[in-house]
Design a protein that fits this description.
binds D-MYO-inositol-1-phosphate; 7-stranded mixed sheet; 255 residues; alpha+beta; binds calcium ion; D-Maltodextrin-Binding Protein, domain 2; Fructose-1,6-Bisphosphatase, Chain A, domain 1; 31% helix
């Protein structure tokens, strides 16, 4: 079975649904004070699970699909960027990874409103709409544009996150906070961003994106520069050249 084709088909189908509802009134619930889930998140996950079912491989999704993360399983964020979606800010993506234990072997991320399909397979490179990707060549933080995000617990515990943000801000050429971690990682892979860091992400936020970055020649670690897997709660991803400079800052602000 062509798992990549299946993952792409599921991402494109979820994307179509998300585009269709983008301008409509959708039902929104709260999982926490600022942590939203829309009916489109739930519908997208159902659609993706339904398509991936053909593989016979179990699915662990952010919303309802609850496979155990062992052996081979799909790891799915049906709509990364829910706050954006709920506010009609056109920056969100389904993110789908095929996992072997803690490591992604295949990843697909679909930037819905730009119709950009990113994918990677372990050992076979990373692609955007069929074009092979490589990370940027910026080799110092001073010339780098970085991205980050803020966890849903930011109201309760903002200090470390804001201090880290400050330290990157005064070193980098620019810092972006667009609101979809999967796209931040895809953007590091294609060289539009030079680096990314964030605490408290969930496995479905990063699984597909880290494979894209690695297959595009970049580096992914935790804040300490150690090997990262998506079940850890601090990540630095970069083009490799600015990685040490980034972990030097991030390591001071371990969550
Ligand atoms: C969120 C986004 C956001 C990040 C949050 C994530 P969701 O995922 O990736 O960029 O800063 O920490 O939880 O809830 O929109 O799928
Ligand atoms: Ca997410
Ligand atoms: Ca999500
Ligand atoms: Ca969410």
């Amino acid at each position: 079975m062509d798992f990549l084709a299946l993952a792409k088909a599921s991402a494109l189908a979820a994307g179509r649904l998300q585009r269709e509802f983008f301008d409509k009134e959708v039902e929104i619930r709260r999982k926490g004070e600022i942590d939203l889930v829309t009916e489109v998140d739930l519908k997208s996950e159902k659609l993706i699970v339904d398509i991936l079912k053909a593989s016979g491989i179990p699915v662990l999704g952010e919303e309802e699909a609850k496979a155990e993360p062992v052996g081979r399983y799909w790891l799915v964020d049906p709509l990364d960027g829910t706050t954006n979606y709920a506010h009609r800010f056109p920056w969100f993506a389904p993110s789908i990874a095929l996992m072997e234990d803690k490591q992604p072997v295949l990843g697909v991320i679909y930037h819905v409103m730009l119709d950009e399909l990113f994918w990677a397979e372990r050992g076979k490179g990373a692609y955007l709409n069929g074009r092979r990707l490589s990370v940027s060549r910026i080799d110092d933080l001073n010339n780098a544009v970085l991205a980050t995000g803020f966890p849903y617990g930011i109201h309760e515990d903002p200090v470390k996150v804001v201090k880290a943000f400050h330290d990157f801000l005064v070193k980098a050429q620019g810092v972006r906070r667009a609101g979809a971690a999967a796209l931040d990682l895809a953007y590091v892979a294609c060289g539009r961003l030079d680096g990314f860091w964030e605490p408290h992400l969930k496995p479905w936020d990063t699984a597909a994106g880290i494979l894209l970055v690695e297959e595009a020649g970049g580096k992914v670690s935790n804040y300490l520069g150690e090997p990262y897997d998506p079940f850890q709660n601090h990540i630095v991803a970069s083009n490799g050249l600015i990685h040490k400079e980034m972990t030097k800052i991030a390591s001071k602000y371990l969550p």
